[in-house]
Specification:
By secondary structure, the protein is mainly beta. The chain is built from one helix and eleven strands.
Length: about 120
C-alpha cells in the first residue's frame, strides 16, 4: 500500500512537502515515483527516486524546483516542492515499481497510491 499526504493550498512561490509511506507489497520496490494529474489532462510523470544510490530523475517542468528523497528506515519518500506555480495544481500520486524507465517513458508503475490534492493560487 502507498499512502500519500501533505497536499494543500499554497500561494504561487510557496512550498509544500509531500510524503508517501510504503507498506505491504510495495515495501521492497526499487523505485518510487511521483505523478500528477490536473483537471482535464492526462496523468504525467513528475519525479522518480531509486533507493539504490538515491538516484533521482525529474520532469523538465519541475527540474530545479522539486526534490525527491527517501528515508529507508521509515520506508517513506518525499517530494519537496519549491517555487510552486499555478500550473503545478493537480492531484499528486505516489507510485512504486522496479524500473525508473517505465515511470519516465510510460507513466507506468506496479503500485499506485491514492492522490493528494495540491492547489497553487496565483
Amino acid at each position: 500500500q502507498l499512502q500519500a499526504s501533505g497536499g494543500g493550498l499554497v500561494q504561487a512561490g510557496g512550498s509544500l512537502r509531500l510524503s508517501c509511506a510504503a507498506s505491504g507489497r510495495t515495501f521492497n520496490s526499487a523505485v518510487m515515483g511521483w505523478f500528477r494529474q490536473a483537471p482535464g489532462k492526462e496523468r504525467e510523470f513528475v519525479a522518480a527516486f531509486a533507493w539504490r544510490g538515491a538516484t533521482t530523475y525529474y520532469a523538465d517542468s519541475v527540474e530545479g524546483r522539486f526534490t525527491a528523497s527517501g528515508e529507508k528506515v521509515k520506508n517513506t519518500v518525499y517530494l519537496q516542492m519549491y517555487d510552486l506555480k499555478p500550473n503545478d495544481t493537480a492531484v499528486y500520486y505516489c507510485a512504486a515499481g522496479e524500473t525508473m524507465g517505465t515511470m519516465i517513458l510510460a507513466n507506468g508503475a506496479d503500485y499506485w497510491g491514492k492522490g493528494t490534492q495540491v492547489t497553487v493560487s496565483s
